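Q: Hi! First time doing this. I have a protein sequence and I read that you can turn it into a structure. Is that right? Here it is:
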Amino acid sequence: MKSPNKQKTAKTRKKLKQRYYFLLNPFIDAAFTKCPKCETKTKIRKYWLLIHIEPYRLISLDKTCRFCPYCELIIVKKHELESLLHDICRENFPEIAGNEYFVYGTLDRKDCRKLQKEEWDFKTALEWAYAFKNEWKFKPAPMEWHPADKNLNKNLKK
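A: Yes, that's right. Below is the predicted 3D structure, encoded as structure tokens:
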């Protein structure tokens, strides 16, 4: 039997509009030019990301991301995102610069333009947003080294 809390969570998830899977790439040297799941080349696309920064601040950010159209996976480099968030917060909300954040999902362009023109609240933004279906975690494949000279390979073993 499911606990009442799990039943409420399942009902809430069904109510949320969901689109895309999400991968926050923590590796500086791995760009995920190929999808980590299906290994097709990723495309470069711009998405409006809805980001929650503690305590109680939502930011919409137009960000260039890697995207696999087959897996519906958006890949964002963590160090780029954190740098942008830090700069935005330092200029507009210095009291929350460096706080914990959570990438909630995406917004349509038309809805984001509305949010930029008028005052809005949490409820409105969350109604217009598309939550991510799931957050994935992958590790990049290790690079293999193949020396062209066989003698060089013998010398390395000594």
